[in-house]
């Protein structure tokens, strides 16, 4: 890549670079298009700080298409990066979600390694880096997000050495023994080392990274620092992500959500216990194993005859084979369980393959007695934190996989090993039978954790650490991280 001059329109003091823009394109009946905000923790945390710092968000609009001009939406400057059909297949579905995703999630599924997917990954990362270089003001702070864009930090540094560059990985970072399978392991590590600060969900992931840099790239390291030959230092640290806790609490307290939660329990037939699972339909989430565990408890009569499981599975990455197969497997399992154990008008599993707005999610959280979150591996798992935030009365039980990043903080959950079906059954039963006093004690402690560590704390902690380490060429002041 040849270094690019900043365009005269470059004005952003804070640039977020993420695979997706925080908006969805809506096609109206007359064929015209408009944009709708896609609510998420990241955008709710970053929107205020972006507005205060002339921020720009660079990302893919989510479908195949030509270049679109930058535009503003809801006070945010958005810079679309176009992907062709072929790039969606090779960069997004291929290398990001069929190579890196399974490799970084403990090989829960077998990763595919294809050289042409890697070439597309390099090409698309270059495009994101060029867009960031073009839109960042002098000495700006650029925050690159997630596994789809691991090469951007080094590419961007080459184009714009004046920038302060941070990178945050939202998913797990695997141990050296697994990561080393990647044919392009060294290039990925060198890509990340273009950042000044590399953030992970957990301290263990940061240690995996430091160890790999020492082993595979040969740089000196000490604790959380990497010393590069040119004199630059890169820090690798944990910054556990969180949710917009106050936003969820407010939603859960709102009159329509309270009414909707009541309605949900009524529509379910006023069962004594409602178990709930809400996940993207992903093989890392352990949906199959948890439904089996629940159905065995029902078949054995352990739950009485009025417990139901509500499972919401949000459609995801549907053109990737492993996801298609998973959907068929879950469809079959739910059909079999309801066929064996359901009665007319009362299935034991209520399964919905759809995505719901935040209001409906909050109502489901309020309606559920036992939330079951059992991923085989998960960077954090925000559903677990959202459930806790919505339990305003301090009741409800959380059954949580010890392999979710959230288990590090939510120690008072009923922790399970999702590979151990009998162990899961025991914990689900324990959660179901626990006395209100015990549930209250556990939930109050978890609510304290989630309210003290919300997503805006996460964003400020990262940006403060990134800007604190500024070197002498820095001129701008630190972005104001809390508004
Ligand atoms: O957890 C990683 C992540 O990329 C999230 O940021 C995102 O919400 C989710 O996976 C689904 O991602 P996508 O639909 O872009 O593949």
Strand arrangement, major sheet: 5-6-4-1-7-8-9-12-11-10
Number of helices: 16
Give the ligands present: 6-O-phosphono-beta-D-fructofuranose
The CATH superfamily of the largest domain turns out to be Glycogen Phosphorylase B
Shape call: globular
Kindly report the CATH topology of the largest domain: Rossmann fold
Q: How many E-type strands?
A: 18
Question: What's the number of domains?
Answer: 2
> In CATH's first tier, which class of the largest domain applies?
Alpha Beta
Helix content: 40-55%
Based on CA atoms alone, the radius of gyration comes out at 23 Å
Described by strand count, sense and barrel closure, the largest sheet is: 10 strands, mixed
Strand content: 15-25%
User: Can you name the CATH architecture of the largest domain?
Assistant: 3-Layer(aba) Sandwich
| Overall mean pLDDT | 93
Structural class given helices, strands, pairing? alpha/beta
């Amino acid at each position: 890549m040849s270094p690019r001059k900043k365009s005269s329109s470059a004005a952003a003091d804070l640039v977020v670079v993420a695979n997706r823009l925080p908006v969805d394109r809506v096609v109206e009946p007359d064929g015209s298009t408009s944009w709708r905000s896609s609510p998420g923790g990241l955008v709710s945390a970053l929107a205020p700080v972006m507005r205060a710092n002339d921020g720009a968000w660079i990302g893919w609009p989510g479908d195949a298409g030509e270049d679109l001009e930058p535009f503003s939406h809801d006070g945010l400057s958005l810079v679309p990066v176009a992907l062709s059909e072929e790039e969606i297949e090779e960069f997004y579905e291929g290398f990001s979600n069929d190579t890196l995703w399974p490799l970084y999630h403990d090989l829960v599924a077998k990763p595919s390694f294809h050289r042409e997917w890697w070439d597309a990954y390099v090409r698309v990362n270059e495009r994101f880096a060029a867009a960031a270089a073009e839109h960042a003001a002098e000495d700006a702070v650029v925050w690159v997000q997630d596994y789809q864009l691991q090469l951007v930090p080094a590419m961007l540094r080459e184009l714009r050495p004046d920038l302060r560059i941070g990178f945050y990985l939202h998913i797990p970072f695997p141990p050296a023994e697994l990561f080393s399978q990647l044919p392009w392991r060294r290039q990925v590590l060198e890509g990340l080392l273009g950042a000044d600060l590399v953030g992970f969900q957990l301290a263990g992931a940061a240690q995996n990274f430091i160890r790999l840099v020492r082993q595979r790239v040969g740089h000196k390291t000490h604790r959380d620092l990497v010393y590069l030959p040119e004199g630059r230092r890169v820090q690798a640290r944990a910054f556990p992500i969180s949710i917009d806790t106050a936003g969820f609490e407010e939603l859960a307290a709102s009159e329509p959500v309270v009414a909707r939660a009541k309605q949900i329990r009524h529509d379910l037939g006023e069962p004594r216990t409602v178990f709930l699972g809400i996940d993207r339909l992903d093989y890392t989430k352990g949906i199959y194993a948890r439904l089996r565990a629940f159905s065995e408890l029902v078949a054995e009569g352990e739950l009485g005859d009025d417990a139901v499981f509500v499972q919401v599975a949000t459609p995801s990455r549907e053109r990737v084979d492993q996801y298609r197969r998973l959907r068929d497997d879950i469809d079959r399992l739910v059909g079999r369980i309801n066929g064996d154990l359901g009665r007319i008008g009362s299935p034991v599993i209520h399964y919905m393959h759809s995505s719901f707005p935040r209001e409906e999610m909050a109502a489901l959280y309020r309606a559920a007695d036992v939330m079951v979150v059992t991923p085989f591996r998960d960077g954090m798992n925000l559903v677990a934190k959202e459930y806790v935030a919505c339990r305003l009365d301090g009741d409800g039980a959380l059954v949580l996989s010890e392999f979710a990043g959230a288990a590090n903080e939510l120690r008072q959950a009923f922790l399970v090993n999702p590979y151990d079906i009998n162990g899961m059954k025991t914990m689900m039963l324990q959660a179901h039978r626990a006395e209100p006093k015990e549930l209250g004690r556990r939930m109050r402690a978890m609510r304290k954790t989630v309210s003290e560590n919300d997503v805006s704390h996460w964003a400020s902690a990262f940006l403060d650490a990134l800007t604190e380490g500024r070197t002498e060429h820095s001129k701008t002041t630190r972005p104001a991280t809390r508004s």
